[in-house]
């Protein structure tokens, strides 16, 4: 025979679990609305020395150090909200602003810059070979 208090405790645990399951089901079944489309101006560019303060701010918000090397920056309405190192490190982003949609754009821009740098290096190498023959 089961002790009466043990049975009551089991029933309370079961009731709590059912309530959690109901809440979870409700939250999962709610229709999600897509993020509103805004007309915020987005600009992607390479960093400069003038961006050091903004990069420090992002690093502090993320609890990390500013990545070394060149960075592709994402600006929304003139404010830097994300930075992606060209050398392939982890991006920095303002955790209080929506920035996930900017990361694919920043990666695309970084790959474009890498290809342009590679093409430029090949052209310089070809020109130096041509001059050496003349």
Fold and architecture overview:
- This protein is of the alpha+beta class and 134 residues long.
- Helices cover 51% and strands 15% of the residues.
- The protein has helices spanning 4-29, 52-62, 103-133, and strands spanning 42-46, 71-76, 79-85, 92-93.
- Strands 1-2-3-4 form a four-stranded antiparallel beta sheet, sandwiched between helices.
- A hairpin with a 6-residue loop joins β3 and β4.
- The longest helix is centred in the C-terminal third of the chain and has 31 residues, at 103-133.
- It is elongated and about 100 Å long.
- The N and C termini lie far apart (103 Å).
Name the features.
alpha+beta, 134 residues
Oligomer: single chain
What is the radius of gyration? 27 Å
Report the helical percentage: 40-55%
Largest sheet: 4 strands, antiparallel
Strand content: 5-15%
Strand element count: 4
Structural class: alpha+beta
Order of helices and strands: HEHEEEH
Strand order of the largest sheet: 1-2-3-4
| Tally of helical runs | 3
Low-pLDDT stretches are: none
Anisotropy-based shape: elongated
End-to-end CA span: 103 Å
Give a quick summary of the entry:
It is built from three helices and four strands. It has helices spanning 4-29, 52-62, 103-133, and strands spanning 42-46, 71-76, 79-85, 92-93. The protein has a four-stranded antiparallel sheet with strand order 1-2-3-4, with helices on both faces.
């Amino acid at each position: 025979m089961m002790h009466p208090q043990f049975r009551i405790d089991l029933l309370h645990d079961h009731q709590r679990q059912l309530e959690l399951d109901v809440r979870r089901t409700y939250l999962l079944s709610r229709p999600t609305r897509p993020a509103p489309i805004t007309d915020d101006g987005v600009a992607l560019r390479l960093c400069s020395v003038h961006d050091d303060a903004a990069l420090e701010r992002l690093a502090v918000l993320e609890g990390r150090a500013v990545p070394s090397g060149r960075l592709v920056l994402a600006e929304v309405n003139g404010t830097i909200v994300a930075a992606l190192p060209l050398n392939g490190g982890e991006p920095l982003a303002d955790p209080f602003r929506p920035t996930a949609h900017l990361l694919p754009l920043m990666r695309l821009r970084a790959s474009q810059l890498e290809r342009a740098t590679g093409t430029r290096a090949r052209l310089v190498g070809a020109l130096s070979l041509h001059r050496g023959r003349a």
